[in-house]
Amino acid sequence: MKALIVGANGQVGKHLVSFIKDQENVEAKVMIRKEEQAPHFKELGVETVMADLEGDIPAIAKAAEGVDAIVFTAGSGPKTGDDKTILVDLDGAVKTIEAAKKAGVKRFIMVSSYDTTREAIQSSDSSFAPYVVAKHYADEWLRATDLDYTIVHPGALTNDSGTGNVNVATKVEPHDIPREDVARVILECLVNESTIGKEFQVVSGDVDVKEAIKSL
């Protein structure tokens, strides 16, 4: 399987690419938007392709040529304004979904937010609500397609070293999770077809990632 990693230059994305490098049956192709981001991946021997989530659908579809799956782990980041949240976390996600359809890529893994329900929007403070709204509608758009999707809802992200142990379910108690472990979860979703059509929350826990994903 060859997977296009959208948001590969982010922290979760870099962990994921690193883990994929150790797999015999999965290959990464990374989508980046700046040439200066390329050396890191070229040193790993990973194929890179240039495309911008603020660009058009055909450009993203071209980046997806020759892959079997797309992982969307991009985000505007906490230091940007609401405009970038809409352009990247919502519109960028929707354009990537449409690009997958245009490129004939059926498998799509979305890294969303911990809770993107309508209730979460209503209960969020004014600074966080736009992000939840963006993720909510991106998830809704994906659910409405006939793509073989999986939606991952991670808890609060940390830069702690991963433990390889998580807690996954449709609903779990709020907790944090290292970005490294989120990447492990994404990889397991890529290689485990039983996750198709499912979405789940994931936080740090005491179950090995492989076993946790198998239990879904």
Please describe the structure with a list of short key phrases separated by commas or semicolons.
216 residues, alpha/beta, Rossmann fold, nine-stranded mixed beta sheet, two-stranded parallel sheet, globular, NAD(P)-bd_dom
Please characterize this protein's 3D structure.
The structure is a single chain. With 216 residues, this protein is an alpha/beta fold. Helix 1 (11-21) packs across helix 7, helix 3 crosses helix 4 (82-103) and helix 4 packs parallel to helix 6. The chain has a 9-stranded mixed sheet with strand order 3-2-1-4-5-6-10-8-11, with helices on both faces. It contains 8 helices and 11 strands. It has one domain (2-214): Rossmann fold. Strand 1 (2-6), helix 1 (11-21) and strand 2 (27-32) form a beta-alpha-beta unit. InterPro entries: NAD(P)-bd_dom, NAD(P)-bd_dom_sf. This is SDR family oxidoreductase. Residues 7-192 form the NAD(P)-binding domain. It holds the Pfam family NAD_binding_10.
Give the arrangement of secondary structure elements.
Layout: E1 2-6, H1 11-21, E2 27-32, H2 38-43, E3 47-50, H3 57-63, E4 69-72, H4 82-103, E5 107-111, H5 118-123, H6 129-143, E6 148-154, E7 156-158, E8 165-169, E9 176-178, H7 179-191, E10 198-204, E11 207-208, H8 209-214
Helix pairs in contact: 1-7, 3-4, 4-6
Pfam families: NAD_binding_10
Organism: Paenisporosarcina cavernae
Protein name: SDR family oxidoreductase
